[in-house]
Specification:
- The protein is mainly alpha-helical and 434 residues long.
- It is built from 18 helices and six strands.
- Bound molecules: s-citryldethia Coenzyme A.
- S-citryldethia Coenzyme A binds next to loops.
Length: 434
Amino acid sequence: MTETPEQTFTLTNDQTGESCKLPLVEGTYGPHCIDIRKLYAQTGHFTLDPSFTATGSCKSRLTYIDGDKGILMHRGYDIKDLAAESTFMEVCHLLLYGDLPNRSQLDKFIHDITYHTMVHDQINYFYRGFRRDAHPMAIMCGVVGAMSAFYHDSLDIYDPRQREISAHRLIAKIPTLAAMTLKYSIGQPFMYPRNDLTYPENFLYMCFGVPAEPYNVNPILTKAMDRILILHADHEQNASTSTVRLAGSSQANPFACIASGIASLWGPSHGGANQAVLEMLDQIGHKDNIPQFIEKAKDKEDPFKLMGFGHRVYKNFDPRAEVMRESCHEVLEDLGIDDPKLELAMELERIALEDPYFAERKLFPNVDFYSGIILKAMGFPVSMFTVLFAVSRTVGWISQWKEMMEEPTLKIGRPRQLYTGPAERDYVPIEKRG
Ligand code: SDX
């Protein structure tokens, strides 16, 4: 990033003629930013941008998205190359440390993660407190936050080594906790992690293995799982990542920060959309019903939205959705599954993309549109879909948190507001109130 002082932006009040000059800062790619940190001091005015449609909250070196071109890259590597050539463990190293690892770095990283996959056995008892039909994301919010109560030796957020250990613990243990959440919901015993398996193999083993018989690793499912983890790893300053950063800015411990990210991800407008897509396809039922649901999605009086469509940043195809669609075909074909939901989804995509309403608003399928179909084919219950998103996004959240903690000064995030409430008024005792 270069701050070019000669580049400034002048804001002028057309009525009073008052104006102020603000620096215009340029990144590697993307729109330049007007640095407004001195705006209030110079003008006494705030800016107003309620859902941050045009506000940069930080500088970051992790991920770049070009919404118009449908580009996503992590530390300069295109997501399509990473999905085709890399592994989730490599991508974790890339996000955390800034580069793809060489062979010895990767071996060490995998060893460090592998030997943190077990959770404190006391955590098992937390699960017993939940109903079996609790939503898995409710359980994950609880047990991940509870990690703060166990790992006291890596809570010093100003110690780089303790930050690194917490990052390793979270990346390593989130699949274990997620698999335990699945097992608990179906009444099966927890499966302890195995150090002889790769990260995606181990996760699938803990989810689908049972003590009664050996587990056969399925290379098709393993590859699909690893690719899904890569595609969801990080995505700039989305709602849940911004939640993690804001929580971390108060010096909250990393486990509590990740739990706040899980809570934010749960919403159907965000990570909960993959579950909502499957529920929507169930609701549509048959391709003959698609037109009526397209009309519902367009009706401003109807809260129904086409789940898996649209994006705050992408005004083109979400590159992850394209990779996911290819994977969908591969996995279903390899597994010999003929899921009518895939055909229904393809038909829905075709009809929607031909409709002027969606074309005018540049609403394209996003990462969630196809992921649910693959996850269902892999045997995951729909209620677990957003948990899987959280398993992957944990590395993005903790890498963004680590980047923020490495800034020279950590300032608490504290947005201001435009107050529109009542003007000052005298107190009225209850006997005089109407
Ligand atoms: C993720 O931010 C990220 O990076 C998120 C994510 C990540 O990796 O972290 O990419 C993951 O959250 C993907 C998004 C998953 N959510 C969904 O699929 C839910 C369905 N999508 C919508 O809820 C919506 O598109 C959002 C929430 C994703 C984006 O909302 P915006 O940017 O606030 O869009 P908008 O409301 O400004 O929409 C612009 C117009 C509006 O119509 P008009 O007022 O202009 O007439 O498009 C309409 C919206 O009503 N619109 C839709 C629609 N999405 C937007 N209409 C019908 N169906 C939709 N899905």
